[in-house]
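Lecture notes, unit on binding sites. The following record was shown on slide 14. It pairs a sequence with flavin-adenine dinucleotide.
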Amino acid sequence: MDFSWNEEQQAFRREVIRFAKEELNSDVVERDLKEEFDWEGWRKCGKFGIQGLPISKEYGGSEAGILTTVCALEALGYGCRDNGLMFSINAHMWSSEVPLLHFGTPAQKERYLPKLVSGEWVGVHAMTEPMSGSDAYSMRSRAERKGDRYVINGSKTFITNAVYADLVIVFANLYPEKGAAGVSAFIVEKGTPGFTISRKLHKMGLRTSPMAELAFQDCEVPVENLLGKEGGGQAIFTASMEWERICILASHLGGMQRMLETSVSYAKERTQFGQPIGQFPAIANKIADMDVRLETARLILYKAAWLKEQGRHPLREASMAKLYVSESCVANALDAIQIHGGYGYMTEYQIERELRDAISSKIYSGTSEIQKKIIAGLHGL
Ligand SMILES: Cc1cc2nc3c(=O)[nH]c(=O)nc-3n(C[C@H](O)[C@H](O)[C@H](O)COP(=O)(O)OP(=O)(O)OC[C@H]3O[C@@H](n4cnc5c(N)ncnc54)[C@H](O)[C@@H]3O)c2cc1C
């Protein structure tokens, strides 16, 4: 077993941290308050090559393996304090670029991937509906084939990046009588008649990552806009979730490292009762707990990524990584706030935002309860 990054990966990691610290950290507190997306940061990430990490070179990507991608995203999350920007980039990569790469026709890949990779376009994945979340395939959205077109009707909610969507991969049921087997994925471009961004949504955390509801009313797309096969939505969603559950929290590992370092420094500097608070076992134990959670979270996420790099389908490990990293991130943010006392609760110290941002990770890409359901299901329960 080799637990170390190779020299090339280490050098890349350093370069990503430098880039993130220098280019992505301006005005995060203000942008969080105003719910502002960092367009400039998004484009800089595109230019640096973040959005193209796992994408083939012919479409402008760098064809990095999943481990190198995880290494880079962790470094990005360490250097960049804007967790909302990290989340928007990850949602774009795992739920629009990767499905296009694996299920798109050559024409679809050629048309969309270069723009998504460069940061010129924003990609969106629309599955969740007001009445179907965890039970995603019970969706009410419908598609119907009419000659050389599909007509889509339905509404989607909680859609990340939707405010700025250039391209939406929308799931709708083409053959409702077949249940989940009728669910299919369609590509809808901005400006398509019948497709509207119906309402911007406001969130507790990840406030710099835009979110909206989408409406499709007799929205017609050419048959060429089917992604994968008719009834192939399940396969696309499952593949996309496997990537997403492994990779989306890699940036959180970097954030957890940052929170740990900040908490250690504070525990050494802040004195009460004539000594640094880190000398009190109650505080030192919190630091140890944070470190253990971070190390365990890293191992579980790296293992899932390693299995995927071997060409395996690590359903169990991907669910475990999603579950454990998100729960640990929330626990570490709570400890970091407690270590910082009243200052941790204040906006300007940028610790309370970490907690608000972390909580959503227990919900998106399948809730913690759903990850446990998947893991227990593999034991026949
Ligand atoms: C920040 C954020 C970004 C998101 N981005 C997107 C996006 O880009 N695209 C998209 O399509 N969706 C997105 N979502 C939606 C997300 O996928 C759903 O919120 C999630 O799947 C849960 O669905 P729900 O909110 O309807 O909750 P529900 O499914 O109604 O669940 C409510 C509660 O019941 C529990 N529960 C449900 N079923 C079971 C069960 N069988 N066993 C045990 N407990 C159960 C859940 O765990 C939860 O605690 C996003 C959500 C968030 C918070």
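Take-home: Residues 91, 125-128, 133-134, 158-160, 206, 360, 363-364, 366-367, 369-370, 373 surround flavin-adenine dinucleotide (CB under 6 Å).
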